[in-house]
């Protein structure tokens, strides 16, 4: 687990603001769930034989003897909250959330045991049109962040539970003849979750899978029509994608459409966003049958990409716009008053008021170190003349004295426009 330090948080805030703006444009509303849930919620939703439940969850008993778990993902908790509060009854719901998730797995680049996700869930729509919209919405986010050239979309259909059962039997029958040649994880999964063998990272296992039965051959007509409808819509919108027959999701609740946005920009291929349909999960958790589709994005990996690809706008910083300093007790009191007036007039600006005393030279050094564009100086002459001295700290312009009545208008001309990413 790691800390997000003050020099890193502006990038996180930029990512969060940009994502929230895009999601708002598509009609999604934020929901906030607790980080702790009943353990049974994840066993029933994710699947007891998945790696997450078997090896990765942080589970403990509270003082009442109840088994609780730090959430390893957000979908199950979102479904629980939406059902508990009656949000899904005969209506479409578009929800999103962000926050920490917890998995006890081997740390790797861009992945920690406490990690952060932005999750998106849409309930109440069963057609391929919403699947396409979700993918187009995500593509719009990559464009806003400058990541479009660095990610690619892979999609697949894993069909209905009945289709997967038939395929599972064929896959197990095929792989059983090669059991001794499979990697250790795949040997274990052959008994518990054989579809996960399809995304094994072991090269020899992947070589064996080249002649294995293909899931697409076992799809039911409904799933095939749904997937064809999705592909037609993506083609019409001009969104590039690749059909990956080996793409499955590691959580049991997925069915029909599954997808991943992957990148090669982090060294080895990595997934930065993944999701799909989970039409049976709401009823599985006790609600009425409700179609649903969603995805989650790993924020650590996205931040790492933005940093390593130098895609963070110059406006994303914690530098001050104005540094207000007064000399003498009267000047300091007036500097505090003027700063509050400017914060009223320019609420999107960072305005620092000098505190801590010192001589004029040391105060100006602090003004310069703050990164502020302009220092506002209030000494005896300024107080007696109802003026302020403006000293540009970055542009090389000469300092000048302006009247209080002209101050706000003059500053508007000196300061760069407030960027959408910092507003």
Explain what this protein looks like in three dimensions.
39% of the residues lie in helices and 20% in strands. By secondary structure, it is α+β, with helices and mostly antiparallel strands. Helix 1 runs antiparallel to helix 5 and helix 5 packs parallel to helix 9 (221-237). The mean pLDDT is 90.
Quickly list its features:
eight-stranded mixed β-sheet; 20% strand; 15 helices
Gyration radius, in Å: 28 Å
Query: How are the strands of the largest sheet arranged?
Result: 1-5-6-11-10-9-7-8
In what range is the share of β-strand residues? 15-25%
| Helix content, binned percent | 25-40%
Number of separate helices = 15
Distance between the termini: 30 Å
Query: Mind summarizing the main beta sheet?
Result: 8 strands, mixed
- Give start-end ranges of low-pLDDT stretches: none
Alpha-beta classification: alpha+beta
Global mean pLDDT: 90
Number of strands: 16
Globular, elongated, flat, extended or rod-shaped: what is the shape? elongated
Topology:
Layout: H1 9-25, E1 29-30, E2 36-38, H2 39-46, H3 51-56, E3 58-61, E4 67-70, H4 75-84, E5 93-102, E6 114-123, H5 128-145, E7 152-157, H6 161-176, H7 184-192, H8 203-209, H9 221-237, E8 242-243, E9 257-263, E10 270-277, H10 281-284, E11 292-298, H11 299-308, E12 322-326, H12 328-345, E13 351-353, H13 360-369, E14 374-378, H14 380-385, E15 387-392, E16 400-403, H15 407-414
Parallel strand pairs: 1-5, 7-8, 12-13, 12-14
Antiparallel strand pairs: 2-4, 3-4, 5-6, 6-11, 7-9, 9-10, 10-11, 14-15, 15-16
Helix pairs in contact: 1-5, 5-9
